[in-house]
Design goal:
Two copies of one chain form a homodimer. By secondary structure, chain A is of the alpha/beta class. Chain A is 32% helix and 24% strand. A five-stranded parallel sheet of chain A has the order 5-2-1-9-21. In chain A, strand 6 and strand 7 (89-92) form a beta hairpin. The radius of gyration of chain A is 23 Å and the shape is globular.
Chain lengths: 426, 426
């Protein structure tokens, strides 16, 4: 990288970071993209990996492949330890990297809302690894249940509790319920499938709080009709390895608690203090510039736009558009122009409950049912990076749609090695 | 399961165990198949997962799918802790299972030949998890190397040592060398790819000791010509996190040692002592019955056939034929006939070095080069279970053949969760 031309460092290869890198790269700007993974994850489809509809590799895209045809963009896999604004240096692992412009796109993390035992005893659903861990957990609970004779223990093993009634929670609940009553009921002929339960716990008084009220009601009805138990106005007070406890002292005995409730900005450590907003987000100007730092941008879930006209919900579209704006503004600054304000163009939102059942909002118009479901598939197939991925996903969706068979239901141990005799393996 | 009809328990769902289960199931015999995984692994293709030609799910087959159309065959995922021959009970995890007939098909495990540091500091290549771990290791060494500036460290990170000059070692060495000089050289434009080295260490005086001499020579020449360093007559004396040491005190500095050298039977623990042969294998009669136990069979890598006329090499074909014979003999015993002796029909053997280069032996005739390579692909595609797998593998092979692009080169962390801000993740 030449020292003449300004260098832009982007931390985080989510929707915002990748979009910014591509835009700057197309204009021949020197870019270094940093992420702790060597791939970009298509988060909206994580739940389909967790429920064995899709293969893990189908919803990710390797970053070095993505950047191959952008010669001025380089990639570094690493964890950013600290940022020093004054000296314009970031420390990634043991490497010190200087920058002229910096885009912080480090996204968000789970927030366990101070619930005792939640961090240790529940599964988050934010990364590909999380999704695989959930798939392994669900499948191995069924293997366990096939072994035990005690009915209560069997019931406990086959009870799956999802905390959080937002899009992630609902999509996971609906899809998991479908998996159990289609493929798994065939895989486990010796199990009485009615023993298995999916329970959705929501603190608020309705599902999909960020959608129009009637869509929440529709979703709730749909889930109940298909056997998913929905607890509204229920806060989780404690999670143990054996059960999850609600504030009204109900105890739900389970081996599997999936946590989709709280969210917190995943801000990198900075040498100088930064103005923050709710959920520990970095406060940024309307131009997405970090308050008091003209050459630093905060985009996506990590930032909060100061007095923004529209409330953002942390969906992919927002991150993509912010990434684009940050790149545009840096290009403007490079040629001496002043950055422009970000304004979000809301194309609408969609979420899936199950086969033929979705909800959404296009502009101001709420939609539901088959239309919303079909639109979701269209839109996500369209945005998924990589032709190979699109074809593979389409194939799996068709397989799932017609034969209720998605991806291979495989439990992959995460041990470094299993080089042990059968008898001595724990 | 009715107590009237005899029950056959099969431990291990490798080639031998699955073959026996299918055969007995087709005859309506009550069978319980036990394995620690919920899938059967097509071991001969493991190296193609380790070198990112294939996806993990493409070389496995879920056992419950495999057994769905055999109503008398049940599956249990678990680890066999102990076998009590006298009471005809095996203990799998906490479950006690009784049997009338038992087939032990628990296969083999790596044997580190007492080399100091080998178990802790080298990667075995025997399970799907092992193959994925190797893929992650190779790819992340390249990511590391792209970060370091010190040339010696870079060289160390990009040095990959494979111990063992048998089929697994050679196939892995050739394939890894190909991966490095095709896809990885494109993925890492900032790295000088000639820094990367694949080194094959073999204790004997030639590669493929179980093949005709000239094939070993051919293989050695081929590997050398393509940049793989081959150490013959070299025993490993020590493995540390930084290097591998040979008995002549050569030190090869590396972060990655893959161990394919020794092998040992993976025998389950038994309450009563069992006659064993070399490599701790259970000694079995010509009928594959465990010496002194008429209702117990030992098949595949776990057993050694007493004064067998042909020396077996632990390849899939042998296991498949032994599994069939054991099933046949149990069927004979059930109807009151006496078991028959096992005799191996050698269809031949094949191994791949790299594109267009293979070696093999059909009957008594050694073959090499393009023909052997092409035959290998044919035969393995034919034996791979599952049409979906065959299609997927064929697709990846063509992709790899024409574009040197196989599976997605993705480094999947094996942590339960990565729900951490970028800055604080180790």
């Amino acid at each position: 990288m030449t020292s003449q031309k300004p260098r832009v460092v982007i931390i985080g290869a989510g929707f915002a970071g990748v979009e910014a890198a591509k835009k700057l790269g197309k204009h021949g700007v020197n870019v270094l993209l940093i992420d702790r993974h060597n791939y970009h994850t298509f988060i909206p489809m994580l739940y389909q990996v967790a429920t064995a509809i899709l293969y893990p590799h189908q919803i990710i895209y390797p970053l070095r492949r993505l950047l191959r045809d952008l010669p001025t963009v380089n990639f570094l896999q690493g964890n950013v330890r600290k940022i020093d604004f004054n000296n314009q240096i970031i420390c990634a692992d043991n490497v010190a990297i200087d920058y002229n412009y910096l885009i912080i796109a480090t996204g968000s993390q789970s927030q366990f809302l101070g619930v005792t035992g939640a961090p240790e005893n529940s599964f988050p659903m934010r990364s590909l690894t999380d999704a695989i861990a959930i798939r392994n957990q669900v499948l191995s609970r069924f293997e366990q249940a096939a072994k035990v004779t005690d009915e209560d223990e069997k019931r406990r093993l086959l009870t799956f509790v999802i905390v959080g009634g937002g899009a992630t929670g609902v999509e996971l609940a609906g899809s998991l319920n479908e998996l159990i009553h289609s493929a798994l009921s065939k895989d486990y002929p010796t199990l009485n499938i009615d023993t298995a339960r999916v329970i959705l716990v929501q603190s608020g008084d309705r599902l999909f709080p960020s959608y129009p009220q009637k869509l929440g009601k529709y979703t709730e009805k749909w889930l109940l009709r298909h056997g998913v138990k929905v607890h509204l106005n229920s806060k989780v007070s404690k999670v143990t390895p054996e059960a999850v406890y609600l504030e009204d002292n109900t105890a739900i005995f389970t081996d599997t608690v999936i946590w989709t409730a709280g969210v917190l900005a995943a801000t990198p450590e900075t040498k100088q203090s930064v103005k923050t907003a709710a959920k520990e987000k970095f406060l940024v100007e309307q131009t997405l510039q970090l308050c008091g730092h003209k050459n630093i941008y905060g985009v996506g879930d990590v930032s909060y736009v100061d007095n923004q006209e529209e409330q953002l919900n942390g969906v992919a579209q927002e991150a993509i558009q912010q990434g684009k704006t940050a790149a545009d503004n840096i290009l403007r600054q490079i040629r001496g122009a002043s950055p422009k304000s970000f304004s979000y163009f809301n194309k609408g939102r969609l979420a899936i409950i199950a086969k033929h059942a979705g909800v959404g909002k296009i502009g101001k118009f709420p939609i539901k049912g088959f239309v919303a479901w079909f639109l979701w598939l269209e839109v996500h197939l369209l945005y998924l990076p990589g032709i190979r991925n699109r074809l593979g996903v389409l194939f799996n969706w068709l397989k799932y749609y017609f034969f209720s068979e998605g991806a291979t239901r495989i439990i992959i141990s995460t041990a470094k090695s299993e080089n042990l005799p059968v008898s001595s393996e724990k």
